[in-house]
Amino acid sequence: MTAVVRETSAGGADLLGEVLAPLRLEGVFASRWTVRAPWGLRGDQERNAILHYVHSGECAITMPGGADPIMLRAGELAIFPYGGAHELADRPGRATTPLDLLLPGRPAGSTTELRVDGPGPMTELLCGGLHYDEAAVSPLYRALPEVLVLDREMLAVEPLLAGTLRELADGTRDGAPGSGLVALRAFELVFVLALRVALGRLGETSPALRALRDPAIGRALLAIQTRYAEPWTLESLAREANMSRSAFATAFRRLVGEAPAAHLAGRRMREAARLLTETAVPLGTLHERVGYRSGVGFHLAFRRHFGVPPGEYRRARTARG
Q1: 310 alpha-carbon distance from chain centroid
Q2: Contact at 8 Å (CB) between 129 and 49?
Q3: SS3 306
Q4: Fewest CB within a 10 Å sphere: which of 101, 241, 266, 276?
Q5: Sheet holding 97-98, edge to edge
Q6: What residues does the HTH araC/xylS-type domain cover (predicted)?
């Protein structure tokens, strides 16, 4: 038997996947809404990514700060990557009710159904929440737009995404055995596929998306994400991107929002925090695992980043369970 292995991206890895994988996204709630006008619901800031898919009808999304409302129509998807507060209603300006009053608690793993009766047109929505590890969030993820909207044309670009949303719409309606668990896992798939589509189709609307799709900066980002323990310098990262040092530093800061050294340090700190929380790696060798030559230098950098030394960080996480 002959096996053929081909690299499919720079370094044989997937930058978007490398950014998302440490987050350990997990579907924690899913709900199906059947609402008739007049209706309006208000959701506070959450520590979850939130998704809304309009199966039929339409709704208006309003966010704090005075931005123009967004009309979400049948077959369209809205994603709030870090769970920003927002309102959903049959039209802009409608009075809203706190979502927690109608769906209190929403324990992890729950699937619910919400009905609001009224004399007006009906809208059906599928809504999901994905928990993510806040300690693993990179600046690139935090730089994503507060809300991403994918219309029908964009969803059709990725047949698996469009098909999964159709199956979600049908599967949550029939109440078949295991349908709740399927819905939770399906929303995880929808989130990743939707970000992949957004990367290709909305790349010019967000610095974070532009950085992920930029070939040169993407190579450097992938190197930092996957090979953070190597002795990187500005010069070596610029070579990785096949750019001059000055051009690379300028482009990196413009697209990523921080200097290469700061981005590298943040990646090393997130990995150190993960190792302290999930493994028994000795404190005396931890600095070597994340690319620091000096234990003292690592301890100072860790304390500057997290506010406590590594040992105290581990004890606090262990006590928290």
Answers
A1: 27
A2: yes
A3: helix
A4: 101
A5: 70-73, 58-62, 86-89, 40-43, 97-98
A6: 218-316
> Could you tell me if 156 and 55 lie in one domain?
yes
Residues with Cβ within 8 Å of 144's Cβ and at least 6 positions away in sequence, in order, are 81, 82, 206, 208, 209
Q: Which residues of the chain fall below pLDDT 50?
A: 1-13
**Residue 164 included in any domain:** yes
Q: Which domain holds residue 315?
A: 214-320
Query: What is the pLDDT at residue 120?
Result: 96
Domain boundary among the residues 151, 167, 202 is at 202
- Predicted confidence at residue 5, as pLDDT, reads 32
Structural tokens at position 271: 């990995």
Reported as half-sphere exposure (CB side, CA atoms, 13 A), residue 169 has a value of 19
The answer as to whether 1 is a domain residue is no
Q: What is the structure's pLDDT at 6? A: 36
* Statement to judge: residues 45 and 130 lie in one domain: yes
Backbone CA torsion sign across 142, 266, 212, 243: positive
pLDDT given for residue 317 in this prediction: 84
**Under a CB-based contact definition with an 8 Å cutoff, are residues 23 and 141 in contact?**
yes
CATH at 261: 1.10.10.60
The 8-class DSSP code of residue 69 comes to: P
How many structural domains is the chain composed of? 2
pLDDT tens sequence across 82-115? 999 999 999 999 999 999 888 887 777 778 899 9
Residue 79 belongs to domain with CATH number: 2.60.120.280
